[in-house]
Structures are given as C-alpha cells and as structure tokens.
## 1
Amino acid sequence: MPALWDLPDFDAHESVHLFDDAKTGMRAVIAIHSTHNGPAAGGTRFWHYADQQAAITDALRLSRGMSYKNAMAGLPAGGGKAVILADNARTKTQDRLDAFARAVDSLGGRYITAQDVGMSEDDMVSLARVTPHVAGLPGQGGDPGPYTARGVYLGVKAAAKQALGTTDLEGVHVAIQGVGSVGGGTARHLAAQGAKLTLSDVDSARAAALATELGAQTVEASEIMRVEADIFSPCALGAILTETSVAALRVKAVAGGANNQLATGTEGRMLADRGILYAPDYVINAGGIINVLRHIDGAGDAEINTRIDAIPGRLESIWTESARTGQTSAEVADQMAKGLIGR
Ligand code: NAD
C-alpha cells in the first residue's frame, strides 16, 4: 500500500485519522479535508470494504466532496467524512458505536458527523450520548429530503431560464428519474407551477401513484433517459451519466438531486459538446446539508430558506463562467469550490 500522501485522492487533506479500538475491535477512518471555513462536516458511513485501502480511499474521496459541497452552499463548515469498517455481516454493536463516538469526540469538534449510508437515526442518537459533535439529530430539522427537493426545484427553474429562456414553468417538460424523497418532492413543486412531468421509478407502483396525484405521465425506469423533454432530472442513483446515456439524451438540460451523477467525470464535457446544460450535482442538491448543519451557527428556518434560495444564483454564476471560459460547468464548480476553501 502506498503512503497516505501518495494516494491519488489524498489531495492535501489537513489530516487523516485511523482509529483501531483494541478493546472492541472498532476500526474507523476520519478524513478531514478542510477546516478553512469551519469545522469539517460530513456523514459517517458504515460499510464493509474489500480492504483497508478501499476504506481510506472512500473516506478521502467523500471528504473532499464534502469540502466542495459545504463551501458552495455558503456554509460555515469545512469538509470531512468518516467510515466505520464493518465486517462481512455488517454487525453493529453498541460498544463499537460508543468507541466510534469517542473517536469523533477525541477530535474536539474539528470533525462534525451526520448520518450516511449504513447508519440509522438511532445510531446517531447513540453517538450523541457520547459526543456533542453530531449534526442532524431528530428535532434539529428532521428529514433532509424536503429541503433537498426545494433546492432541486429551484435549480430546475434556473435551468429552464438558462437553457429555454423562460421564467415560467407552465408546460415545461421535466423527466424525473426516481420519485422517492427528493424526486417526489421536486415533482410536487414542479407540478404546482404547471410543469409537464414524466416520472419513472424502479418501484413502478410508486411512480404510478404520484403520477395519478399530479396528473403526470410515467415510463418504465429503463426508458426515462430517452424521453424527449426539456429537462432531465436524475433523483435516484449516481453514475447515471455515462458515454452511452449522454449520447441518448433528448433534453436541453440535466438538473437533478442524485449524488455523483457523472460516471467518470468526463461526461461533463460530453454534455457540453452536445449543448446540454448541466447543473453540478453537489451545488443543486445542497438543500439537505444546509438544513442538517443548521446548528453549526444556530441558523433558524428563515436563514435556512435564504441559504437554499441562493442555490439558483450559484448555478447561474457557474453557467455564466462556463460560457465565458469554455470550461464545463462541473469544472467551473470545482474551481469555485477550491477558491472558497483557499486552495
Ligand atoms: P429515496 O430512497 O427516497 O428515493 C430514491 C428513489 O429512486 C426510490 O423511489 C427508488 O425506488 C428509486 N430508484 C432506484 N433506482 C432507480 C432507477 N434505476 N431508476 C429509477 N428509479 C430508481 O432517496 P432520496 O433521498 O430521494 O435520494 C435520491 C438521490 O438524491 C440519491 O442519489 C441521494 O444520494 C441524493 N441526495 C439525497 C439527499 C436527501 O436529502 N435525501 C440529499 C442530497 C443528495
């Protein structure tokens, strides 16, 4: 295994902490990419990795992502991420959770954790009994989905203005992939503005029920990226923009809430070459983290709404800079984020 510093994803992390609790067997990585704007904030993932290196790489990659996301959301927070190395059966024991909470606590607030894949709300409550450095607990803002959905809706509206030249969503056709918490909420906001919707979900009954409620159409999950529409809004899985799927798109813009939409990163250029406007995922889907991190500076509901309302303006400045420089919107977003964290 190469030295930590030599890993391609190291990217000048401020610090990377490896924990090994001899008594309980708890092993975890906490990666702190940046505290330039405030304490490094990002979720804890409980996952079974092929090996230690995979766990470290995941923590580094996700931690840098949180730096960029939190900076672009204008939050007084840096970026970090924790992964707890689970065994094959993903056995979670209280003594290991407690050991992890002590690990978070030992960093004295330089890292603030939140919920991520494999961690339940109950797990987070249990961490909070040991350390105060836990965000997004029940009663502190609740489910991030509706906040993310509002930001995505505002981002879709901005995309319609930029790509179609309209500020009125009446009749604008949006194809939505995945109608769970984020996609479903986005659909409701759009329907209220008169947008024409085509919905899809691998859970076809879920898509059908929402379509009936909103007077929308549905298509099979496998068809949604080939629907001729104004805007495609991915709100299900990551890595859905591939060479093949981008070539098949029949829309003028992609604006949705899914994380890590570009499969390899190069698809941003392919979208630009096809004249398809792209809303960088971590900018448009920041509503949830904006709400989760409300306690960092004690932001109330009005301030949370103001921060979410800033998402379309941020997208517009990215698109303007992209048009000026010829860089893709994804490249511009990364560059802006780096500037905001002093890199
Ligand atoms: P969710 O589980 O509530 O909904 C996801 C929906 O997508 C489900 O209905 C599922 O059946 C459907 N789905 C899965 N695979 C699909 C496919 N191939 N085609 C069509 N539909 C499919 O999840 P969510 O919270 O709405 O999150 C959706 C996406 O948004 C994820 O990528 C998530 O990482 C991202 N995201 C969510 C939040 C949040 O606040 N919840 C914040 C930022 C980013």
## 2
Amino acid sequence: MSGMDSLESTLAALAARFDDALAGAANAHALDEVRVAFLGRSGEVTAVRRGIGTLPPAERPTAGKVINAAVEAMEAKLAAARTRLESAALERSLEDSIDVSFPGPAANIGAIHPVRRTAIDVARYFTRHGFAVVLGPEIETDANNFDALNIPPDHPAREGLDSFYLRPDLVLRTHTSPMQVRSMRKHGPPIAIIVPGKAYRRDAIDARHLYMFHQVEGLMVGRGIHFGHLKGMLLGLFRELFGPWADVRFRPSFFPFTEPSAEFDVKCPACDGQGGTCRTCGGSGWIELGGSGMVHPNVLRAVGYDPDEVTGWAFGCGLERIAMKRHDMNDIRAFVENAPGFAAGLA
Ligand code: PHE
C-alpha cells in the first residue's frame, strides 16, 4: 500500500470518528471540545499532518491538499452543527418565556344589540301571557298612521310629530300604533298582540333623540278588558325587565286614539324614587317610558269592532329608553355609532 493510500484511509477513519463525536455533542461546549480534539494545535489532524514528512517528497504536495480538504469538510460540519445547536437553544428559551397561564387577548366576538335584547325580553314576557308578536311595515299610509287612529288631517297632534313624508299619502310611521289598526282589521276580537319595530320622527339628534328609534306596541281587546289589566301587565313586564323592586305609575295624558289616556313611568332604579339630585331621573324619582290608555271607541269603529261589545287597552313604549335604563347608559347615540365592543362592554 502506498503512502497516499494509507493517508487517505487514515483520514477516512478520522472523519468517521469526527462525525460520531459531532453527533454526540449536545451543546456549544461539547462542540468546542470536538474541535480541539480533531483540529486543535495538538489534535488528531495535526498528528496526521506531521506524517507528511515521512512520505516521498513527490507525494507531499498532494498529501497536503488532501489533508486541507478533509479539514475544510470538518470545519463546515462544525459550523452547521453550531447553527443547529444555537437555533435549538433559541427555540427552548422561547418556550420557557411563554407563560401559558397568562390571559390571552379578548376574542373579538359579537353580542346581541341591547335594543334587540330588550325587544326579545319584552316579547318573551308577552308571549308567555298568550300574546302574539306581529311586525308591520315601516312605510305606512297616512290613513293608518293618523286617520284611523282618530287623528284627522287638521288635528294638531299631526304637527307635533313632524313626520317624514315619502308622498302626500305615505309616511315613515311615526309610531307602531298603526299596527293596532292593521291587526284589528285582519282579525276580529278578541286580540292580544305586541308589535316591536322601528319608528321615525323628524327630531334633531341629541343625547336623548334619534330620528329613527324602536318602540313596542301592545294591544289587548276583548269583552270586559279594563285598565287594571293594562296596569297588571306593565307592572309584571317592568319587574321582569328591571327587577322585583320595580314600580309603575300612571299619569293622566292625552292621545287621540285612547280615552282615557295615561303616560306611564317606572320608579327610578338609581334613587329608588327619592329624586332629589338624582341624575338618572333628573330629580323626579320616576322615569317616563311610554304612553297608554283604553282604545278609543272611534278607533274600534274604524276597524269594524263594536265598542259596545268589546273594550281594550293599548300602550306604546320606547325600547331605547328601556335599554338605556337597563344598561345604565346616558347617550342614545351609542346605539347607532357601531363602536367595536359597545354591546359586549355594557353593564
Ligand atoms: N303611539 C304613542 C306614541 O308613540 C304611544 C301610545 C301607544 C299611546 C298606544 C297610547 C296607546 O307616543
């Protein structure tokens, strides 16, 4: 065997041992030990290099090149192993620095709009008592919105509403009351319905007014229906919506389509009816929620009911109003501003 052949097999055996040592090096320190043992000044390669002197002079340059190539290969493998170890260490340190018990960012999930939530809760109460939920058109004839409700064209009550007219005979309904008319025309007595929905008035926008808002209408007509039934139903409703402490009072009022008429208030939850300097109720101790009364005989006649046979009550109430009180809000505009997290962030 020539000197070159034996040099080459020595280098091959050495490379194999180098590979094994490298594979067993688990950290930077171990890696350095491998480097010193093979490539260091008194390492294995240096020992082989010394052997060049024993070769015939003609073979020495080639032997030098072969050894240099082997050294380069080993150095490349060392560098690769170093990179591999470093990124594994980084990976481990990242794992250690993540506190898996730390609360994550809140998921950006939606919530039911508080006005709809209130409408759903109102509907749940009334349907449990045998009422039907009906919906009607937001574009109404002025005949249904006004005339059939005992508001003739020259009636001052029309002026106060400042309506949006689409045509001389078509209006964006100013209240949900025209559905009293539509429902009674469609079904004979007895009738018990509620009507949640949008209503429109040409109001300037401020903390308490929007030109589009929601109402829920209630109507119950039959033999022997009286005001006490209305009072009982509303008291039950507001105890369910606000809590068992809730109290309702009625104040004499006027609506052309009810007689007698009354506005109803709920006792202020913030001051328990004490008033004084209470900001929630403005000091009155009560919060105005809507209008009500006994259905006017003229309205019953207009839909073909006989006021000598049947009587009934009706009420109409703003849903934003209720929702604001339930969630302790003080600006109605928040309902339509679409701020992210608005509904989820309510009390
Ligand atoms: N429609 C009236 C309003 O919008 C409220 C109301 C409804 C009054 C039913 C009496 C009976 O103000």
